Amino acid sequence: MSYVELSGQAMASTRVRRSVVWDAVQFALNGVIFVLLGEQLPGIVAGASETLAAGGEQWPWQIALYAIAIMLVLVVLRFIWVWASLRFTIFRTISRSANAPKPNFRLVTAISLAGVRGAITLAGVMTLPLVLGDGAPFPARDLATLLAVYAAE
């Protein structure tokens, strides 16, 4: 489709249909990731609690603190990234014209908190192997998965 669009032979209705089909496929694949996670979540929670108990930590409070710390770090990183991206875009606009808008704090905050970010985080953590090469379970895989679930929220 990209080559056809570049050559100018694609009709507008074809581009619209392609966009709708791609959105439906993306929505379905996101749903599959969360269904798979939902089926595995009871075992993940049990495994994470065993990992924390083996380390001598208290289950409810330690995992909550870890999750809050991860979420705060991610929010700050997203905010910095969006602010820097907008500043770069505005810098490029200033070089082309003198009427460049300034980034609004509310706009940067809204963009930082909006958007889909859960599916990629969960897909990344699901790539951790279940077992190591010698057949032993991957250490703290359930804990990493549970923290990724909290980070994706």
Could you characterize what this model shows?
The chain has one domain. About 75% of the residues lie in helices and about 0% in strands. The chain has helices at about 1-5, 10-55, 60-95, 105-115, 120-125, 140-150. The chain is flat, with a radius of gyration of 22 Å.
Can you tag this structure with a few keywords?
single chain; 153 residues; mainly alpha
What integer value in Å does the Rg equal?
22 Å
- Count the helices. How many? 6
Question: Overall mean pLDDT score?
Answer: 79
Low confidence ranges:
none
The CA-CA distance between the termini, in Å, is 34 Å
Q: Give the percentage of residues in beta strands.
A: under 5%
Give the SSE string. HHHHHH
Structural class by secondary-structure content: mainly alpha
CA-based shape: flat
Number of strands: 0
In total, how many domains does the architecture comprise? 1
Main beta-sheet strand count, sense and barrel state: none
Helix content: over 70%
Q: Helices, strands, pairings?
A:
Elements: H1 2-7, H2 12-54, H3 59-96, H4 105-113, H5 118-125, H6 141-152
Helix pairs in contact: 2-6, 3-4, 3-6, 5-6
